[in-house]
């Protein structure tokens, strides 16, 4: 099968692209129904919906008094959900039972009607899609793990870079003569950029600290008795 997603998804492995191609829409997934068959399916669906509505309408409403209205409504809601869940389970069980016999006949090549024989390629297609879904889910989990590890590594590298920049600026804080000795213009440009970013970050930090200090003072808390809050309000930290 030709790879349809290869050019648009170059980050995927060849095996993952193949799985996507298998899971893509396929004309074999569509089975044509005659007008009578489509009408029968529609009527069966309407009958099921009417049975559910009838069962709900036949429920005797309980009298609601002023004191226990909310409690009675909660009980009625739970009963409604239980009834709908029971109906859904029964309907799924009935569908499964009705589907089992023709599928078994199709798989074991014992189908006698044209519709039963049409099931075999659909069953095979279903199995292929199930396998593709399982493998794609596994590949998705691996990608998420790699992404999480990469994000952690990126944070660690950023912290290391910030520490190195702080050390460099601390060492050169009182002596700018080293700049004149630099011959690499690219390095000079990077140093200027780092210093500008550090100043911007420090300014943002000061603004955030001022806002936090004002919020603590205006909150009514006894911040004077708390070391952390007092340091924040009085700006006793060394940051």
TrEMBL record:
UniProt entry tagged with the keyword Iron: no
Sequence ranges assigned to domain Centromere protein H C-terminal in this UniProt record: 39-236
InterPro entries: CENP-H, CENP-H_C
Alphabetic keyword roster: Centromere, Chromosome, Coiled coil, Kinetochore, Nucleus
Protein localization: Chromosome, Centromere, Kinetochore; Nucleus
Coiled-coil boundaries: 33-60, 147-204
Alphabetical list of Pfam families matching this protein: CENP-H (PF05837)
GO MF, one annotated term: kinetochore binding
Annotated Gene Ontology cellular component terms: kinetochore; nucleus
GO terms classed as biological process: chromosome segregation; kinetochore assembly; mitotic spindle organization
Family, similarity comment: Belongs to the CENP-H/MCM16 family.
Annotated protein name in UniProt: Centromere protein H C-terminal domain-containing protein
């Amino acid at each position: 099968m030709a790879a349809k997603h290869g050019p648009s998804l170059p980050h995927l492995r060849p095996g993952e692209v193949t799985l996507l191609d298998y899971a893509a829409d396929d004309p074999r997934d569509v089975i044509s129904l005659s007008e009578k068959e489509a009408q029968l399916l529609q009527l069966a669906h309407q009958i099921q919906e009417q049975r559910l509505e009838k069962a709900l309408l036949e429920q005797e409403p309980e009298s609601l008094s002023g004191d226990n209205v909310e409690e009675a409504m909660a009980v009625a809601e739970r009963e409604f959900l239980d009834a709908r869940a029971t109906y859904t389970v029964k309907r799924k069980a009935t569908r499964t039972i009705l589907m089992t016999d023709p599928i078994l006949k199709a798989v074991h090549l014992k189908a006698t009607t044209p519709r039963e024989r049409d099931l075999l390629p659909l069953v095979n297609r279903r199995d292929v899609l199930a396998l593709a879904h399982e493998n794609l889910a596994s590949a998705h989990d691996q990608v998420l793990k790699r992404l999480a590890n990469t994000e952690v590594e990126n944070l660690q590298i950023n912290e290391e870079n910030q520490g190195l920049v702080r050390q460099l600026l601390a060492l050169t804080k009182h002596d700018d003569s080293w700049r004149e000795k630099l011959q690499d213009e690219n390095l000079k440009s990077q140093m200027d950029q780092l210093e500008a970013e550090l100043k911007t970050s420090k300014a943002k930090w000061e603004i955030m600290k001022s806002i936090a200090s004002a919020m603590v003072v205006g909150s009514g808390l006894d911040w004077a008795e708390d070391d952390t809050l007092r340091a924040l309000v009085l700006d006793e930290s060394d940051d």
